[in-house]
Amino acid sequence: MRIAIDAMGGDHAPDEILEGAIESIKQLDKDDSLILVGQAEVIESKLGAKNLKKYAESLKIVNAPEIIDMDEAPIEAIRKKRHSSISVMVKLAADGQADIVISAGNTGAFVAGCQMRMRNIEGLNRPGIAVVFPTFEGPVTMCDVGANIACKPINFYQYALMASVYSKHILGIDNPRIGIMSIGEEDAKGNEIVKKARELIKSDPKMNFIGNIEGSDIFKGKCDVAICDGFVGNVVLKLTEGLVDGLFKVIKHEIMQESMRLALKFKPIMMRMYQKYDYNEYGGAVLLGVNGTAMICHGSSKSRTIKNAILTCKEFYNQKINEKIKDYLSTTTVKEIDEQ
Amino acid sequence: MRIAIDAMGGDHAPDEILEGAIESIKQLDKDDSLILVGQAEVIESKLGAKNLKKYAESLKIVNAPEIIDMDEAPIEAIRKKRHSSISVMVKLAADGQADIVISAGNTGAFVAGCQMRMRNIEGLNRPGIAVVFPTFEGPVTMCDVGANIACKPINFYQYALMASVYSKHILGIDNPRIGIMSIGEEDAKGNEIVKKARELIKSDPKMNFIGNIEGSDIFKGKCDVAICDGFVGNVVLKLTEGLVDGLFKVIKHEIMQESMRLALKFKPIMMRMYQKYDYNEYGGAVLLGVNGTAMICHGSSKSRTIKNAILTCKEFYNQKINEKIKDYLSTTTVKEIDEQ
Description:
Radius of gyration of chain A: 21 Å
Number of strands of chain A: 11
Strand order of the largest sheet of chain A: 3-2-1-4-11-10-5-6-9-7-8
CATH architecture of the largest domain in chain A: 3-Layer(aba) Sandwich
CATH topology of the largest domain in chain A: Isopropylmalate Dehydrogenase
Shape of chain A: globular
CATH superfamily of the largest domain in chain A: Isopropylmalate Dehydrogenase
CATH class of the largest domain in chain A: Alpha Beta
Largest interface: A-B, 58 and 58 residues
Oligomer: homodimer
Distance between the termini of chain A: 45 Å
Largest sheet of chain A: 11 strands, mixed
């Protein structure tokens, strides 16, 4: 398979991106290839002649002279910067020249680029971003975390469909329990869209739907898949990041006040925990619903994250997740509700 | 002042509720009185003759034979159970016989009861629930966390107004920085309602408005007040609870795997942290915007929380927060946007 990587995207690009790509090579198959997209001269000089020669068969460089900055307005950037690494990369995918696209750059631009250039899977209305939360009780897949902030009931249903396929075949969870984010467990709770979405999901007997879940349930092992609109999902994702960081800051402060020796003993445990429950373990978030495999990595991604992203995408591709989603979509009788 | 407490509401009612009430008495003023609302016989027998005699001047019992269960449908419960502790209590406030109402019972029923029986502050469209997050960088007041899931722009503006008055006069934060929860820092980010709300808040030069904030910013010391609709706020509140619990579970597990001795050393630090950053410190969440002082306590509240709730409410009343909100509302020129 052909894996295209945005070499210029992210806070630590291009160094960490290239390092992650190189690290992944030994875990790839013989007929896999990496396409490094970005400023060719920069990439070549960073890789060095030795690497270029050593991995000549696995590496291809595609020149893209422009860079989309992290804080540029997404859609405008995609339209204007046609020679940026993101634009060139999504075009490769659209033209059937790349099977997988990965970027740690401007998330909005990357998602917009994928949506504008790669088509949706047949029968799918709107793509959604799925992120995996590694909790004490097991991994929870949440969709959508930012692609679609104006969700219709059918979008929720399709997010449930896609995320459960992902949960089953990538995370190995048999018959994943699907919950919809709301503000109380009872059926009567939630806004109108959520209530309609719930009815739609309920009407599909193939889904293991458990109904409403609350914010706390994500970490209580109550569900394997959590469905929400992109606004709520994005707040949840960012809040989780901020809260975990904030809490570790508090713990560090308190332990250091107690005793420096205790702090030193606690440090390796904290590091281990960080690794174990780090969602970078999965590389990033997948944009479910586009024709192809697209993974959004965090802007702060280092080489390990990029390597993991490549390996997760390879699994996504090998497991034919998109084929499975397409099959499910073609057989379901659940259709969009007419909205006045 | 007259402080009415729902003696029957909460997982640990009536014992912990009554204990908290008794504990608060020594910090109250001479002319303050506690009104314990609930099944009179039960309250009397739990308090015992000794307490009843000792605190005869500070305690009053109002009989309310019915109980609204924690999982009853709120509005129906309020309508049907007119002799429940919640119904009787909010009626006392509506009739001017109680200045403060506090309940750890069914949140939905209590909020619905307050909204149905006590009127809104003059000029206020919809009440909102404000909760204080004690973060490493200082307390952050978030409003709304569940009273209003279908917010109009004017509601967001008024939540900003009320929460900043609260932040200033209860938490002592001068000129609090107000942010609106969205999914990116740039002005263009957010859904339509949030964008309109932002314009409305911006149009008031008296507000220290910093624009969009993301989920992570709450714990980064970026704002003192965070505004959102009740759906998003409720998800945030519950997620925070669940994540903190989940994270401490992980830490405990990892430390115990390392060494039992280390775990024992870490325990008191964890307990201290729990106390320091426990939002029960503030007693509960205030329902801002109703005529009177209403505080919603967590269902799991123990005596300490109830005592803190009583003291926070006393401060709210003494600081004349509602008068200050009313004054602000009467002078602002910001009005509702006409919506097609």
